[in-house]
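so my prof wants the structure for this chain in the tokens format not the other one, which i didnt know existed until like an hour ago. anyway here's the sequence
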Amino acid sequence: MTESAPIDESVRIESLDVLRGFALLGILLLNIIGFGFVSAAYTAPALIVDSAADVVAWVLVDLTAEGAMRGLFSILFGAGVVLFLGRDTAGRGWLHYKRSFWLLIFGLFNGYVLLWTGDILVTYAICGFLLFLFRNVGGKQLLITSVILIVLLTLYNSALHFGLLYTQSLGEEAAELYAQGKPVSDELAAMHLGWQEFVVDFYPSNTQIAQELAARGGSYLSAFEWTLVHNTDILLGYLWYMMVPDALVLMMLGMALFKLGVLQGKLDLSVYRNMAIVGLFSGLMINAYELSAAHASQFDLVASFNSLMPTYHLGRVALAIGWIGVVVLLHRSLNFGWRLAAVGRMALTNYLLHSVICLFIFTGAGFGLIGQMSRWQVYGVVLGIWVLQLYLSPWWLARYHYGPAEWGWRALTYGRLSQFKRKGGGASVYQ
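here's what i got, hopefully its the right format
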């Protein structure tokens, strides 16, 4: 079988790189919680909201970025699959599967060696295998299908949310009966057990929190042992019924938007203006509702579990669409984003670099600062990483054709080495 040649650097679409860089940096706003705090803090904000500054940080980040940045990254991954498979040459499908396989390996390395508890690369690799089935579906059909699936995800979330509320109510009723020494029916006993198991998983006790922080903040070995169990539990459960559907639907939407020419940034500016206005307004309003419900409940576990809120997928998709509109408008109108484009071209390298930096800041492999900062303080780390990558990425690409991870991924996919270092490098490829 004859394999296709690698896609030349000259065919890159700059708007995709700018959007990818924006999403990559934005993802860190959420991921820093998983790096810097007990793992349950992501779905239970009450664990790390101790001051007015923490509340402000939580509101600003969750209002503007929660779900949307991960969603935008998924959309762009779907677009990338279409771009990769777009050349109708022999061996392209086989290359796609090889590419997805090696992405899976990168993801396992990120999770089990770099100890990142929230890796998305494994999820993306699995979705990549599935996306090949939709490669020849038209843009309009993909758009309709993805919208239907988003509605179905919303209904699924609604069922889970209200089911949890019911379980919580009966579980707490059973707890009161137990406390009073009164008999408890088998149904109530089962609900009480189910609710307690949910609480243990997503709102750990002080003892469990102390154990996790001690393990992750101790030696590399102790952090590895804890992460090994945690990540394996995710791979065997949560990955399949939450993470894969979440990502796959948005990737299909990304395939649709690419085939319809939206993500290339070439449509009339009014299209992106409308996307920005309608998307941001809708997304911000939905997210504001979810945040107000969580705050009004005094961070009740179910009310604070935003990824299971009935409106969650509607808000994150709307906000992702809105950010696409904003970024494309700025890029086209103000030539905004050349540094972001460099970050986006090195997205895999920069994503793994997040893990490397945070591994040494927060775990026992380095300074062991997990749990030692306030919620608002960790965003200083985020800002530092942003500045580093916004300046390092263009500097690197002025001297090398690819980021190191991209170069390795490319070599593993095609089975041969591409030229790595630029001849006469030193000047930015974006200026």
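also thought this was worth mentioning. The longest helix spans residues 139-179.
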